[in-house]
Design goal:
299 residues, mainly alpha, 13 helices, 71% helix
């Protein structure tokens, strides 16, 4: 018997994780600014249309080859889940959920990654792992009710953001095998292109709305495309190629603190008190799942 090898990230990998988390933390507030003038689908298209152009320019200059035909289906699915579904659902959810609370819900993604890794990658969970998942769900429920206003009603937008947390876990599981065959930059490019294509349904509305949108909304979404999209996904792919999916995902629960601080400084927003308590509970559940919840694997 030998324990599953979960090593500490090396300096370059740690730097890639840190940059990714900082950029993704800033995205929650930037989305809010973009939603002042654009619909959720239009924000997603402008963001990843920008990222696609940035990466497309690099692909042309370097003559990046196309992916192997046998991998196109998996890449398309990863792009649809990790880019299209994740970001459209997140944007719709942020119409009614604060940026900080959204980041707290997304921080529950590691429990879903651990569960999927248990099913598909052989990274088994113990009894305590499933207890941690239950605790995290309870925390997310508290966030959903805390964002519902003084009446303590359930905020439906939180369910959409929870969907984003689930599909980003699926994205990590789908991506892990492909990153053994493709360089992180090439893989990031393929996935973002694949995820942007379905968003073209919002192109007519985006082209019509853009001339009348405020400059700060447009620049915020362009920022989203260059930094939290193209650059952050590149660094995440780099780290994912060098660490187990479930171990890397645990770093996501470090991002809410910076996301809440950035949202406060940028747009003056603070999550409801119950949402903050729920965030602490959810993160505790993640911690239980990814520490006590790891089961020893046979060699």
């Amino acid at each position: 018997m030998s324990e599953m090898n979960i090593t500490e990230p090396r300096p370059r990998t740690a730097l890639a994780i840190g940059i990714t988390l900082l950029l993704w933390s800033s995205a929650f507030a930037a989305i809010k600014v973009g939603l002042r003038c654009y619909t959720p689908g239009e924000v997603a298209l402008l963001r990843f249309g920008t990222a696609s152009l940035v990466l497309g320019g690099y692909a042309l200059v370097t003559r990046m080859p196309l992916p192997a035909r046998e991998d196109t289906g998996r890449i398309a699915l990863a792009g649809f889940l990790g880019i299209t579904v994740y970001h459209v659902a997140l944007n719709y959810g942020e119409q009614t959920v604060s940026a900080g609370a959204a980041s707290l819900i997304i921080a529950s993604a590691p429990v879903f990654t651990a569960g999927l890794a248990s099913l598909f990658l052989g990274e088994r969970l113990s009894f305590w792992g499933w207890v941690g998942i239950a605790i995290a769900f309870a925390g997310v429920a508290m966030i959903a009710f805390g964002e519902g206003g003084n009446g303590m009603r359930l905020e439906p937008g939180a369910a959409l953001i929870l969907l984003s947390a689930i599909v980003t876990a699926a994205y990590s599981i789908l991506s892990k095998p492909l990153l053994s065959r493709y360089r992180p930059l090439a893989f990031t490019t393929y996935v973002i292109w694949a995820g942007t294509l379905p968003m073209l349904v919002w192109a007519p509305g985006l082209l019509q709305r853009m001339p009348n949108a405020s400059l700060d909304s447009t620049l915020s979404v362009v920022y989203l495309g260059v930094f939290p999209a193209a650059i952050a996904y590149l660094f995440w792919s780099y780290a994912l190629a060098r660490m187990p999916a479930s171990a890397l995902a645990t770093f996501l629960y470090l991002s809410p603190v910076s996301a809440i601080v950035i949202a406060f400084i940028w747009i003056g927003e603070v999550p409801a008190p119950l949402a903050l308590v729920g965030g602490v509970v959810a993160i505790a559940g993640v911690a239980v799942t990814n520490t006590l919840g790891r089961r020893v694997l046979s060699s």
